[in-house]
Amino acid sequence: MENNMLTGEVPPSMDSFIDLIIMDLHNNSLSGNFSLDLSNITNLEFIHIGENNFSGPVPVKMPHAMEVMILRSNQFEGNIPPQLCSISSLIQLDLSHNKLSGPIPKCISNITGMGGAKKTSHYPFEFKLYNKGQDLEYLDYGLLRTLDLSDNNLSDEIPRQVFSLVQLKVLNLSRNHFTGKIAREVGDMKNLESLDLSSNKLVGEIPDTISSLSFLSFLNLSSNYLVGQIPVGTQLQTFDASCYDGNPGLCGAPLPICIESNKHGGNNDIDDDDSFTQSLYFGELVKITAGHWDFIEAIFCSFCKITVAHYDSVKLV
């Protein structure tokens, strides 16, 4: 029933379709609270009600076998309900472009479908998913693991439990009000292909563990308050500089090189990279000074010759 011009509220009788596997109502003009009790539709594994005008709290009356919940681009508000953590089979959760507030519940680590290897169903049908900075079309959701909470009013620190969802391929927490540092545990997400933490209030250095994400092909950390040198990794230097924009304290390729030495953990020793950089600067300074000295010496010698010649001419007179 997607991509129509349906209006009004969803009729309560729809929760009696006990054999439903997929419910797709996206891209309509449906409104009101989505209050259907779908918990008894035990075969329901996929629900997509995005791009509508639903309001009120995020619906939580879902079967425990639910694997995909796409609720993006509505008017849902309030906190992310902890009841979602009990849907352990979820492999895709998209709550982006709503009006949600508050923190991410720490119980999110209970969603084992995103954290552990789990066999999922495969249904060959087309659907769109915002991934790697663009809308992409997919024919099968069974291989995807995504968490998209972008463009809300979420706040507080990003809990470490998020980074325990090690099967995720896509993590998008951009355009919120998250604070604090990026936890080192981000490096545990070995399957991550797309990471977007842009337009938040994150501080501190980018953890060096992020350089171990060998499958990462999209990264956006722009518009935060991150500082220090960008960790050296096989792909971190290959990303466009725009993915680090809006962090005046960041330096290192692909941004300009770091001038001041970085200090780690209170250690005042200069690391190898800084030593090499400073050596380069010192070498250039020596070259410039030597060049200037040669120039001064040449002028001085010329002055000496002129003085001697003048003295000789005076003697002759």
TrEMBL record:
<protein>
    <submittedName>
        <fullName>Receptor-like protein kinase</fullName>
    </submittedName>
</protein>
<keyword id="KW-0677">Repeat</keyword>
<dbReference type="InterPro" id="IPR046956">
    <property type="entry name" value="RLP23-like"/>
</dbReference>
<keyword id="KW-0808">Transferase</keyword>
<keyword id="KW-0812">Transmembrane</keyword>
<dbReference type="GO" id="GO:0016020">
    <property type="term" value="C:membrane"/>
</dbReference>
<dbReference type="Pfam" id="PF13855">
    <property type="entry name" value="LRR_8"/>
</dbReference>
<keyword id="KW-1133">Transmembrane helix</keyword>
<keyword id="KW-0675">Receptor</keyword>
<dbReference type="GO" id="GO:0016301">
    <property type="term" value="F:kinase activity"/>
</dbReference>
<comment type="similarity">
    <text>Belongs to the RLP family.</text>
</comment>
<dbReference type="InterPro" id="IPR001611">
    <property type="entry name" value="Leu-rich_rpt"/>
</dbReference>
<keyword id="KW-0325">Glycoprotein</keyword>
<dbReference type="Pfam" id="PF00560">
    <property type="entry name" value="LRR_1"/>
</dbReference>
<keyword id="KW-0732">Signal</keyword>
<keyword id="KW-0472">Membrane</keyword>
<dbReference type="InterPro" id="IPR032675">
    <property type="entry name" value="LRR_dom_sf"/>
</dbReference>
<keyword id="KW-0418">Kinase</keyword>
<keyword id="KW-0433">Leucine-rich repeat</keyword>
